[in-house]
């Protein structure tokens, strides 16, 4: 019989293998079969995923359980390691360690080697002051320069002197709110008086800085002019799916986008006439200082290229009026490249609403008899703004009879318009109003059954149907104004995009 570890086992034939077979009538533990042969024929580690529930499977479960129990029983115990803890320091050892340690002063530290005070140490009666103090202040909205300086610790005399010197360079009211003021206060003789002003530095204007320094003769002012590049900013791009979003994505400020849309709305319908393939073109006032700051102004040029049609509008004031430093309203308007402008009403009605009563004969809803209705009644919610249909002068603003709160505008050429039943009037008599300006708010004062606007229009003193009147006018430049306008158009169109 061949054994498993016999060198000729791998070469044994069928006859040799037959000699290893155990007779079917014999048990693996039969005395006639050697124990070594019987144990090797048993599979002690069968696959527990196959033949679940069979005798070989249960034998594998028993083997696994026995191995786990033996591992747990023979595993060595893990005991904690006890380390040596040094005894706490005390006495001289503690003082020596503390003297060499570092502790936060905020926690009351008193570390380091110190020597007790001797006869050479004299206690101070008060803590000494810094020779100079450097600080900054900010000019608030509606604030005054001298008050800001006094709140910062400058004496009244120095504050008034500094404000007087700054006023010689620029008007104090023209200094923008939020301007930062750098201050240096000097040494004072005692604590009962304010520190003297040694130096002051501020940006008085976008193109001018001012510095005040104390000299032997008192405060002296030094001007620091700042170079300014006034080249306008030109931005072009495609309209795309949204004119507003495309312009904002191109870097156009929101205020300039609003002015651009309002300007083009006088010549075409933004929602109907402007397509995705059209290209916008606009030029904005811009000032760039040599110190790096940039200041964006108002819209100067608004154009759109639709391929078949090109609209180019330029802001121009024939009378040369400009916006002053206090923010006064400009009197210029939008002219096309030929020097012609068309003034249109903001909408077909002075208030957003629906017509509830037309011009002509009607039965009065309160008086109950037929009479002439000399205007249009426009129903709108209480407090809705009422706009002037075109430029004019306020001839009357107040309460009058059945019209309640009433405003009358004269527009020139014998034309006038009236607005009644207002809840509140927003203009006063004698003032000039611009097209689209709010002159009041919808109400129900006077003989009225509900909140609405009564709108009348007169031609040479005779009431006419407001719907039959066109509030559009055309103005044409000529002479010196036209030449100045042409020069401005050429200058603006010469600006390179993104420059």
Automatic annotation (TrEMBL):
It comes from the Bacteria. SUPFAM superfamilies: Duplicated hybrid motif. The keyword Signal applies. GO terms for molecular function: metalloendopeptidase activity. Gene3D superfamilies: 3.10.450.350, Glucose Permease (Domain IIA). Keywords: Signal. PANTHER family: L-ALA--D-GLU ENDOPEPTIDASE, PEPTIDASE-RELATED. This is M23ase beta-sheet core domain-containing protein.
């Amino acid at each position: 019989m061949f054994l498993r570890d016999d060198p000729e086992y791998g070469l044994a034939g069928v006859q040799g293998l037959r000699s290893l077979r155990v007779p079917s009538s014999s048990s693996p533990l039969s005395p006639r079969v050697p124990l070594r042969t019987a144990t090797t024929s048993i599979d002690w580690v069968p696959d527990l995923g196959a033949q679940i529930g069979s005798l070989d499977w249960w034998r594998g479960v028993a083997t696994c359980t026995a191995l786990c129990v033996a591992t747990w029983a023979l595993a060595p115990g893990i005991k904690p390691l006890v380390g040596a803890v040094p005894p706490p320091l005390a006495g001289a050892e503690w003082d020596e360690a503390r003297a060499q340690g570092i502790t936060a002063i905020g926690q009351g530290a008193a570390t380091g080697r110190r020597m007790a005070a001797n006869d050479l140490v004299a206690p101070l009666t008060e803590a000494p002051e810094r020779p100079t103090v450097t600080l900054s202040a900010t000019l608030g909205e509606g604030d005054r320069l001298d008050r800001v300086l006094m709140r910062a610790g400058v004496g009244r005399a120095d504050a008034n002197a500094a404000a007087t010197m700054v006023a010689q360079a620029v008007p104090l009211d023209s200094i923008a709110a939020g301007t930062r003021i750098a201050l240096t206060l000097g040494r004072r003789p005692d604590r009962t008086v304010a520190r003297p002003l040694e130096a002051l530095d501020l940006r008085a204007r976008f193109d001018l800085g001012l510095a005040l320094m104390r000299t032997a003769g008192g405060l002296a002012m030094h001007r620091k002019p700042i170079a300014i590049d006034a080249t306008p900013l030109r931005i072009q791009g495609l309209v795309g799916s949204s004119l507003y979003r495309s312009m904002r994505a191109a870097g156009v400020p929101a205020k300039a986008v609003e002015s651009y849309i309002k300007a083009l709305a006088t010549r075409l319908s933004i929602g109907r006439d402007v397509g995705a393939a059209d290209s916008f073109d606009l030029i904005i006032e811009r000032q760039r200082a040599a110190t790096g700051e940039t200041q964006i102004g108002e819209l100067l040029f608004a154009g759109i290229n639709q391929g078949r049609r090109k609209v180019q509008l330029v802001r121009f004031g024939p009378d040369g009026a400009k916006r002053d430093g206090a923010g006064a309203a400009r009197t210029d308007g939008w002219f096309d490249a030929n020097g012609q402008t068309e003034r249109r009403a903001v909408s077909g009605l002075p208030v957003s609403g629906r017509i509830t009563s037309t011009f002509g004969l009607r039965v009065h809803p309160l008086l109950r008899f037929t009479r002439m209705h000399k205007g249009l009644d426009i129903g709108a919610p209480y407090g809705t703004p009422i706009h002037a249909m075109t430029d004019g002068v306020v001839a009357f603003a107040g309460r009058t009879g059945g019209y309640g709160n009433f405003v009358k505008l004269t527009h020139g050429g014998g034309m006038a318009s009236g607005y009644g039943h207002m809840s509140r009037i927003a203009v006063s008599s004698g003032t000039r109003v611009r097209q689209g300006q709010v002159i009041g708010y919808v109400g129900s004062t006077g003989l009225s059954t509900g909140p609405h606007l009564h709108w009348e229009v007169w031609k040479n003193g005779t009431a006419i149907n407001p719907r039959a009147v066109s509030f559009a006018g055309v103005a044409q430049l000529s002479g010196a104004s036209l030449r100045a306008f042409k020069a401005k158009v050429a200058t603006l169109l010469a600006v390179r995009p993104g420059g």
